[in-house]
Amino acid sequence: MIDVLDSVRDHYRATGLTERLKAALTALGPEDQRLTPEQLGVLDQFLDDGRFDAVLLLHVAMNIADRTQLYREIRRMLKPGGRFATFDVVLINGEPHYPVPCARTPATSFLLTAAATREAIESTGFRTLAWQDDTEAAKAWIAQLPASGPPPSLNLGVVMGPDFAEFSANLGRNLMDGRLGILTAVFDAA
């Protein structure tokens, strides 16, 4: 699923919300009558061609099996010369320890290497503007977490459910073990 907040004449459409996220938003307060939640798949072609100047994916692609189709859809939704930025988890070396935020088992994992990710993106008409391995920065962030105390009451665990702590611990372990990495990249719609 992908989350899109689309504004049309002071009405907002939140697309791709999971049931957990809908429940979390509802628990925070009364529903805003200007917000229409929808649940659609990222490959459902629900937005117009050339609609956006930019698209940003934050830890989304790792959940999508058909990456080429995902990137093709992003390219279709961008205006000519539009920008696409991604910040995602990639495979580095060996099989990850499961469960992780994107998959409970290897059978449900769609992780790619950084090279395979780049190939899939560029094959759909994007040109690479920036490519950065942020694995070391992620490791430094993970290393300081135990000293920072418990997370605030409103955190990603509200959306991801009771297994969030295990998902997070395994993600950190995989980063530290060199099994997974973090990729940040920016492209333009060539």
Verbal overview:
The chain has 190 residues and is of the alpha/beta class. The protein has two domains: 1-41, no CATH class; 45-189, Rossmann fold (3-Layer(aba) Sandwich). The chain has six helices and seven strands; from the N terminus they run E-E-H-E-E-H-E-H-E-H-H-H-E. The protein has helices at residues 19-28, 67-77, 114-122, 135-144, 157-160, 164-176; strands spanning 4-8, 11-15, 35-38, 52-58, 78-91, 126-133, 180-189. The strands form two sheets. Strands 4-5-7-6 form a four-stranded mixed β-sheet. It is globular. It starts with a strand and ends with a strand. Residues 1-13 have low confidence and may be disordered.
What gap, in angstroms, lies between the N and C termini?
26 Å
Query: Which structural category fits the helices and strands?
Result: alpha/beta
How many domains would you count in the coordinates?
A: 2
Number of helices: 6
State the helical fraction.
25-40%
Instruction: Indicate the overall shape.
Output: globular
Features:
disordered N terminus, 2 domains, 190 residues, alpha/beta, three-stranded mixed β-sheet
Write the layout of secondary structure elements.
Blueprint: E1 4-8, E2 11-15, H1 19-28, E3 35-38, E4 52-58, H2 67-77, E5 78-91, H3 114-122, E6 126-133, H4 135-144, H5 157-160, H6 164-176, E7 180-189
Parallel strand pairs: 2-3, 4-5
Antiparallel strand pairs: 1-2, 5-7, 6-7
